[in-house]
Structures are given as C-alpha cells and as structure tokens.
Amino acid sequence: MPEESRAVIIIFGGSGDLASRKLYPALFNLYRRGVLAEHFAVIGTARRPWTDDHYHEVVENAVAGDDVDRDQAKAFAQHFFYQSHDVTDADHYITLKNLAAKLDDQYVTGGNRIFYMAMAPDFFETIASHLKSEHLLTERGFNRLIIEKPFGHDYASAKELNDSLTATFDDDQIFRIDHYLGKEMIQNLLAFRFDNAIFEGVWNKDYIDNIQITLSEAVGVE
C-alpha cells in the first residue's frame, strides 16, 4: 500500500474541460490506489455559481466508467467543495483562505497546499499575486504551484511570467506541466537524432531554427 498523501488541493478553473477530462480522473486513480485516502480535500473554483451538490455530480460523472464502483466514486466526490470565485477580487481570496483552513482542520491535511492553475495563462500572475497578498500560502506544510501549458508564447513572455511567479513561490515549488512532451512522437525525436550518425554534423542550433510538430486530434480545448 503506497503512503497516503495529505493536502488541500485548490483548482482554479474547477468547472472547466481540463479539470473534468483530465484532473478529476487522475485524482480518482490516486484515490483508488490509496495515495489519496481520507486526509485530502479539493476546492474547485470558477465563476459559475455552482453548489457543492452540483459539483459532486460533475466529479462523479467525470470519473464514471464500466470499471468504477459507484459507491467509491460517491465517497471520493464528498472530498470536493466548490467556491464561486473571481480571480481578480481580493475578497474572494479571503473566503477561499477561510475555506482552506476549515478543510485543513477537518481532513487533517497537515497544512499542505497544492494550487493547480487549470485556466487561461493570462490569470496566472494575478492569482499568484493574490495568493501571497491574501496569505493563502501555508506556513505549516508545503506549498506547490502546478501550471498547465502554455507557459508564455515566446522566451520573453515566459521569462516575464516566471519572474512574476518566483516572486511568490520558490522555483522548487513550481511544477510546469506539458503533457505533449510525453507523446511518443516527441520522445522519439532524441532517439531519431542520436541513432542516425548522418545527422551528427548538421542537427544543431547552427542549422535548425526550430522544430514544429502538428498534432491533429479529435479532442479540442473547449
């Protein structure tokens, strides 16, 4: 049995497609494996005026499948709480802080906090700034910031975003996620390069400006 993880997980963009399609099933897999058990809570935030009961239905539907025990899915969803949230409104962060503190005590999470940015990157800097100014960062446990791509649109914008985030979080607290880097085609680039000696002299920055790969998928980003 793996060691149980303890944390309050705050998902910005909790009503979105990324959360329902990827994050909730991934968290449920951890729950079924025992990595998440009793000592965790998830706060989903977004602008939609959802209730906790509706949020539970969303989570249960997101993890539903032929091999899923409905009672287990329902028990999992009871760890989820929803807060309607405007990321530009400082008062909303105070409400969020109070809810996180309440759930930390209720689920005995050790003060550990994970902040997951599952929304437009335009808001990353704003959210990080408010997390610091409204004192949502824990002093008792660990803080983690998880960011989904895109991380800027060029070097300058990526550096600017990184500088703003490291004003709030230490670099080792920031986790940048790009699941496309794990695609087989991307992974095979290195093998293709180093298994073919013919490219040794020309496959470098002097001859290649950039590599562009188009991944045509039926699933969009709606």
UniProtKB/TrEMBL annotation:
GO MF term set: glucose-6-phosphate dehydrogenase activity; NADP binding
Annotated ranges, domain Glucose-6-phosphate dehydrogenase NAD-binding: 10-188
Domain Glucose-6-phosphate dehydrogenase C-terminal, residue spans: 190-222
GO CC, alphabetical: cytosol
Listed Pfam families: G6PD_C, G6PD_N
Presence of keyword Calcium: no
Keywords: Carbohydrate metabolism, Glucose metabolism, NADP, Oxidoreductase
Protein name per UniProt: Glucose-6-phosphate 1-dehydrogenase
Natural source organism: Lacticaseibacillus paracasei subsp. paracasei Lpp123
Lineage of origin: Bacteria, Bacillati, Bacillota, Bacilli, Lactobacillales
